[in-house]
Write a structure and sequence with these properties.
single chain; mainly alpha
C-alpha cells in the first residue's frame, strides 16, 4: 500500500525527517537540564509534581518514549492508528509510572512503608499493565530514530527479551522480583543505597512491562509467544504467591522494616505496626485484583480473536460453532 510505504520505519527514522524534530529533542534536553539544576540547587522551589531526586535516565526514558509514541501514531493513516482507548491506556500507564518515580511522591515512598508499597504496585502492576494493554511497540519503534531502532532490534537485546519472556521464567521473575526487594535485610540496604534504590525501582518497571506484554498480547499464537490458555494461566498463577506474601507482611507481629523508623516516618503517629499492616494489605489486595483483571482481558482478547477468525473464514453452517463469547460475555 502506497501510504504504508511512505510512512515505513526506515523513512520515519531517516536523517531528513529527524531534523524537523531536533527542536523537540532540544526542548526535552533543556527541560531535563533545568530540572536537574533546580533539584540540586533550589529543591525547595520545585512544586509537588517536579522530581524529588532528579534522574536523567528516568526523565529521558519517559519523555522520549512518549514522544516516539506520538510521532509513531501520527506517521500512519487514521485507519491504521491504534484506537483512542489504546492511546489513552498508554498515556495513563506512562503517567502512573512517572508520577511515582519523578515527582515528590518518591519522598513519601522513602519515608512511609505503605507509600513505598503504593509506589511498587503502581510501577510493577498498574502502569505496566496499562502500557501492555495499549500494545504500543510498533508505534514506539516507528517513531524512533533509525539508529536507535536498529540498536533495539539487534539480536542481543532481542535474545535477552526472548529469554526473560519464557513463560515459566517470566512468572517466576514477576513474583520473585516483587518480593525479593521486600526481604527485610535487602529492603533496608536498597533504601539506604541510592544505586540499589534505583536498581530496585527499575527492575519493578522493566519486569512489569515484560510480564504484562507477554500476558496481554492481543494476537493469536503464533505469532504470540503463548496461547490464550497459557496467558490465562499466567495471569492466575502469580496471584496466589502475591496473596501469601502480602498476608505474611500484614499479619506479622514484629516490625520487619526498621528503616522507616530510622529515617523518620511521614506520619509517625500511625506507628510501625499500623504502617506495616496497611503496606501488607496494599501488597496483598491490589496485585491480586490486577491478576483477575488480566484474566478477564485475556479471555476478552480470545473472544475477539475467535470472532475475527469466524468472520474471515467460511464454515459449514450445519456444524455448531462454539466460541469464547458464549462463556466470556
Amino acid at each position: 500500500m502506497v501510504q504504508a510505504d511512505n510512512h515505513s520505519p526506515s523513512t520515519i527514522g531517516s536523517d531528513a525527517p529527524a531534523k524537523k524534530h531536533d527542536a523537540i529533542y532540544f526542548a526535552i534536553a533543556m527541560a531535563a537540564l533545568a530540572l536537574w539544576w533546580l533539584a540540586r540547587k533550589h529543591a525547595s522551589l520545585l512544586p509537588l509534581w517536579a522530581p524529588w531526586e532528579f534522574s536523567w535516565f528516568e526523565f529521558l526514558s519517559a519523555w522520549l518514549t512518549i514522544y516516539w509514541y506520538i510521532r509513531g501514531v501520527a506517521a500512519v493513516s487514521a485507519v491504521e492508528r491504534p484506537s483512542l482507548l489504546r492511546q489513552i491506556s498508554f498515556f495513563i500507564g506512562m503517567l502512573v509510572i512517572y508520577a511515582v518515580l519523578e515527582t515528590h511522591f518518591e519522598y513519601l515512598a522513602e519515608h512511609q512503608f505503605f507509600f513505598n508499597r503504593i509506589q511498587h504496585v503502581a510501577m510493577h502492576h498498574i502502569g505496566p499493565l496499562l502500557i501492555a494493554l495499549s500494545w504500543p511497540g510498533a508505534e514506539i519503534k516507528r517513531g524512533m530514530p533509525a539508529w536507535f531502532r536498529r540498536l533495539v532490534e539487534h539480536r542481543i537485546p532481542a535474545s535477552i527479551v526472548h529469554v526473560l519472556q519464557q513463560p515459566v521464567l517470566a512468572a517466576f521473575l514477576f513474583v520473585g522480583s516483587f518480593f525479593f526487594w521486600l526481604i527485610p535485610s535487602i529492603h533496608f540496604h536498597a533504601m539506604i543505597d541510592p544505586r540499589l534504590f534505583a536498581l530496585m525501582n527499575w527492575t519493578m518497571v522493566i519486569d512489569g512491562i515484560l510480564y504484562w506484554c507477554l500476558v496481554l498480547d492481543p494476537r493469536s499464537s503464533p505469532p504470540a509467544r503463548v496461547s490464550f490458555g497459557g496467558r490465562a494461566a499466567l495471569a492466575v498463577v502469580v496471584m496466589f504467591p502475591q496473596i501469601i506474601g502480602g498476608a505474611l507482611i500484614t499479619f506479622s507481629s514484629r516490625d520487619l522494616y526498621s528503616f522507616y523508623d530510622l529515617c523518620g516516618r511521614i506520619y509517625p503517629n500511625l506507628g510501625a505496626h499500623y504502617d506495616q499492616t496497611v503496606g501488607g494489605l496494599i501488597t496483598w489486595i491490589p496485585p491480586a485484583m490486577m491478576s483477575v483483571v488480566a484474566l478477564l482481558l485475556v479471555l476478552n482478547a480470545m473472544r475477539l480473536s475467535e470472532e475475527r477468525s469466524l468472520a474471515n473464514e467460511p464454515h459449514d453452517e450445519t456444524t455448531p460453532v462454539i466460541d469464547a463469547s458464549q462463556w466470556t460475555g
